[in-house]
Specification:
Keywords: ATP-binding, Nucleotide-binding. The protein has about 250 residues and is of the alpha/beta class. The chain is built from 10 helices and 10 strands. The protein has helices at about 15-30, 45-50, 60-65, 75-85, 110-120, 135-140, 160-170, 195-205, 220-225, 240-250; strands spanning about 5-10, 35-40, 90, 95, 125-130, 145, 150-155, 175-180, 180-190, 210-215. It is globular, with a radius of gyration of 18 Å. The protein starts with a strand and ends with a helix.
């Protein structure tokens, strides 16, 4: 099985993790499984939106690999054992958390192990969803050179839309093969302001970045996050869920 790779991108605070959680819900309900969700943000919190506990991360495995190996076990065998322990197994999807980098701004070793992990695990899944940190360089370091769906998430601001355009434009210089890219505008006001609508239309018109969807601000999502309740438990009648599912239906048609 060759999995489809879905990657999230966008500046910090735009709602990439929220969109990832909604997308996992969508893929599960549409029976587009099994899924491997990778939380590749150093400020990992996708597990919190799914109401899951994380016991081990790729960063912690890296630290373990610096120590002595158990007797009779190679480094690769030890790494594979640890990776299996780090995978959080749920019905229809698994979650793997990258964790903290080696040092300030450095993910060198952790990325190396994550790339090796992806190679080991990829064939087990129909979709791999990467909740990425801000920017795009992280994806290239993870050896995710071929991306089937790149969802660039923006908040409802001129700066966010501009950043989304810039991200869309740097995929080629980074050597990333992106088959499909889409702009998702998150937490949009209702009704949407003419200024925001104009910025979105400008971004879509002047860059190779079609509009995937505009998700409204949602009190239901705020409630789920405050109470620590999984987004997977949101009802299908919740407005942001209905909007997101309609957008995903078009993107993954």
């Amino acid at each position: 099985m060759t999995p489809k790779v879905i990657a999230m991108a966008g500046k910090g605070g735009t709602g990439k993790t929220t969109t990832s959680a909604l997308l996992i819900k969508y893929l599960l309900e549409r029976k587009m499984t099994p899924i491997l969700a990778v939380d590749a943000d150093s400020n990992a919190n996708l597990n919190e939106l799914l109401e899951l506990n994380v016991d081990m991360t790729i960063g912690e495995i890296r630290k373990d690999l610096k120590g002595d190996m158990p007797s009779g076990m190679t480094r690769d065998q030890f790494m594979n054992m640890k990776i299996q322990q780090a995978i959080i197994e749920e019905s229809g999807f698994d979650l793997l958390v990258m964790g903290q980098p080696d040092g300030p701004g450095c993910y060198c070793s952790a990325n190396q192990y994550l790339a090796m992990t992806m190679e080991h695990l990829a064939g087990n899944y129909q979709y791999i969803l990467v909740d990425n940190e801000a920017g795009m360089e992280h994806l290239s370091r993870m050896n995710l050179r071929s991306i089937d769906y790149l969802l660039i998430v923006s908040d409802p601001s001129a700066r966010g839309i501009l950043t989304a355009r810039r991200i869309a434009e740097i995929t080629e210089p980074l050597g990333l093969e992106v088959k499909s890219k889409h702009l998702i505008v998150n937490r949009a006001p209702e009704p949407m302001t003419p200024e925001l609508e104009a910025k979105i239309n400008e971004a879509v018109k002047e860059s190779d970045l079609p509009l995937g969807g505009i998700f409204p601000a949602s009190n239901e999502l705020v409630h789920q996050e405050i109470t620590g309740t999984s987004y997977l438990q949101l009802g299908s009648d919740v407005p942001v869920v209905k909007t997101a599912f309609a957008a995903f239906d078009k993107i993954f048609a």
